Amino acid sequence: MRSCFEFFDHTADMGVRVRAGTLPDLFRCAGKALYAAIGVLAVRRDASSVSQVSFDLAAGDTANLLQDYLTRLLIVFESDHAVVSSVKFITLTDQRLIAGGIGKPLDPERCVFHREVKAITYHLLSVERTADGFEAVFILDI
Amino acid sequence: MSNGKFTGPLERLDDCRWRIPKSYKPTMRVDGLIYADDELIAAMKEDQAAEQVANVATLPGIVKYSLAMPDIHWGYGFPIGGVAATDPKQGGVISPGGVGYDINCGVRLLRTNITWEDAKPRLEKLVDTMFRTVPCGVGRGGIIRFNKSELVKLMEEGSPYVVKRGYGWESDVEATEAGGKIANARPDHVTDTAINRGKDQCGTLGSGNHFMEVQVLEKIEHPLAAKAMGLVEGCITVMIHSGSRGLGYQVCEDNLRLLRDTPKKYGIELPDKQLVCAPVESPEGHQYLGAMRAAANFAWANRQIMTHLAREAFAEVFEMPAERLQMHLVYDVAHNIAKMEPYEVDGKTLELCVHRKGATRAFPPGHPELPERYRQIGQPVLVPGDMGRSSWVLVGLPGSMEHTFGSSCHGAGRRMSRGAAIRASKGRSIKRELLDRGVIARARGRTGLEEEQPDAYKDVTRVVDVLHRAGISQKVAKLRPVGVIKG
After folding, report:
1. Three-class SS string for chain B?
2. Which residue range is the domain that position B65 belongs to?
3. Potential cystine with B79: which of A119, B25, B49, B187 (Cβ 3.0-4.6 Å)?
4. What is the ipTM of this complex?
């Protein structure tokens, strides 16, 4: 199956291009790309350790909204050592995002880490409508 | 901005300098000036780094030039290897993108009295002990934990705070840029999110291009300076490259978000969102500078704790205290920072906001900010190369004050993207290749050694030679890697 994202070269960092038919799928796929850049991430198997993660974000445009969303995922990853899955978008417009997901703690012993992502930069950041839906581009600072 | 080749004008000024005239773009306020030789400039044309030099030249209040060192490569907003000084009295701005996410990423160097002959039989054990002792890689928390009030103190006081708590020697503080503490830090400008992100990361190496390296001093080119630094041929040195970890990344992120609409407020037109900025003398500028200084102090404390951990590893392997191994700190320099510094411009002394994004301070002999022992020789400039070839110790020269706002290069600079480096590693073992070159490498991440392989970098000797010839910094000693740990 074709992946919804691809990495492209950017000298010291990593470029990411994401394509999806809908805006929620674009955001979900961008999250997958972020995690894939960090590594092959495994979570703990015990259900008792999961937590709810809520998102309530506002931004001037969709590109900044995506940057905010991905940054929130990165903060949860670094601060709580957890990945967010099963994200349900309650509101997702060009300037507003309300959503909830499940934070699952990492199982470091089963993870294969590639690299640390410092940030989702604003450089080349874009979200565009395409004939098939949406395309986003962003650069990860490594 | 495309991600293709640079097709703008590059005029040769001499064998070390190239100019992008401000006529290239109507919004450029000053010329771009790039230090490079023919080979480095040819490589630089392959991406958009020079375009970024031109973009930085559009910042309000920029003085003289938008500068780039020979290790320049394509970054985000500013190029890596960029230097820009702005004059607050002329509406000069501060841009978090001119510092980068890894605030006060920097390098420190320790010397020892251990000779290569003595170290060689214990090298593998030493590298393994360092790898076990120094937390590195994704998700690895520090051994030494600080609560929030301690972190606030640490952000105010920098490396002297952790030295007072037993993680270092008094002499380390003097051998650190700014004494390991930049004044006017405002931990109250740092968000809880940033504190939370960095709460268990002080004393950790991180990942990417960060490393701790065991080296052999191969060649001395400036005996007087080497003597002042305690460096002798054949001695073992330790180089540490890391920054402010998650706390610093989040300080940058938080402030970029705060500044999103600021350019519009102050009527500033920008060619790249990542260049968002505010006048230095504005509430937004003060907010960022206070938080950035707090993160910079965190970074100095971070490298200080890793110094302590390196000394512990050496003491264990060589079975004697680090004091007897004379593991003195030669120097510690920041290479991602913005500082207020005085410079003479057109016969007037101006207090400028100097952004160094992948560039190292390089003050010349006699500069009042230098510790007494370096006053005669100039500030040590530490320039890591790559894992397989060499690194350099330099000293600043008077030319740096005249031409580059007291700045020199910060490394070799990448010539290959991470993706290209991984593709070039297919079917090879970089670890094995390094061993064949006499370098024992340990890395936590699966792709760390591939992405950071020697071929991914320019030849650091070529880079430092340009600045040596240009009278910006002078070569002192060449260091050869023999062991490296990475995240």
Report:
1. CCCCCCCCCCEECCCCEEEECHHHCCCCCCEEEEECCHHHHHHHCCCCHHHHHHHHCCCCCEEEEEEEEEEEEEEECEEEEEEEEECHHHCCEECHHHCCCCCCCEEEEEEEEEEHHHHHHHHHHHHHHHHHHCCCCCCCCCCCCCCHHHHHHHHHHCHHHHHHCCCCCHHHHHCEHHHHCCCCCCHHHCCHHHHHHHCCCCCCCCCCCCEEEEEEEEEECCHHHHHHHCCCCCEEEEEEEECCHHHHHHHHHHHHHHCCCHHHHCCCCCCCHHHCCEECCCHHHHHHHHHHHHHHHHHHHHHHHHHHHHHHHHHHHHCCCCCCCCCCEEEEEECEEEEEEEEEECCEEEEEEEEEECCEECCCCCCCCCCHHHCCCCCEEEECCCCCCCEEEEEECHHHHHHCCCEECCCCCECCCHHHHHHHCCCCCHHHHHHHCCCEEEECCCCHHHHCCHHHECCHHHHHHHHHHCCCEEEEEEEEEEEEEEC
2. 11-486
3. B49
4. 0.92
Question: Does residue B473 form part of some domain?
Answer: yes
CB contact under 8 A, A122 and B49: no
Threshold 0.90, pTM exceeds: yes
- Provide the greatest CA pair distance for chain B: 64
Whether residue B328 is contained in a domain is answered as yes
Q: Does A110 touch chain B (CB under 8 A)?
A: no
Which residues of B are marked as active site?
410
Domain assignment of residue B211, yes or no: yes
Could you count the other beta carbons within 10 Å of the beta carbon of residue B319?
9
Residue of A nearest to B444 (CA): A113
Number of domains in chain B: 1
Pairing of the two strands B348-357 and B78-86: antiparallel
B454-467 pLDDT, tens per residue? 999 999 999 999 99
Write out pLDDT tens, residues B41-65. Answer: 999 999 899 999 999 999 999 999 9
Predicted confidence (pLDDT) per residue in B322-353, tens digit: 999 999 999 999 999 999 999 999 999 999 99
The contacts of residue A105 (CB under 8 Å, 6+ apart) are: A43, A44, A49, A50, A80, A81, A82
The enclosing domain of B400 has a CATH number of 3.90.1860.10
- Best of B5, B76, B410 to substitute, by most chain A Cβ atoms within 10 angstroms, is B76
Of A71, A108, A112, the CB nearest to B446: A112
- How many other C-beta atoms can be found within 10 angstroms of the C-beta atom of residue B108? 28
Instruction: Provide the CB-side half-sphere exposure for B251 (13 A, CA).
Output: 36
- The answer to whether residues B363 and B406 touch, using CB atoms and an 8 Å cutoff, is yes
What is d(CA B81, CA B96) in angstroms, rounded to the nearest whole number?
Answer: 15
The one-letter amino acid code at B322 reads A
What domains can you pick out in chain A, each with its CATH number? Answer: 5-141 (3.55.10.10)
Q: Do A114 and B446 touch (CB under 8 A)?
A: yes
Whether B2 maps to a domain, the answer reads no
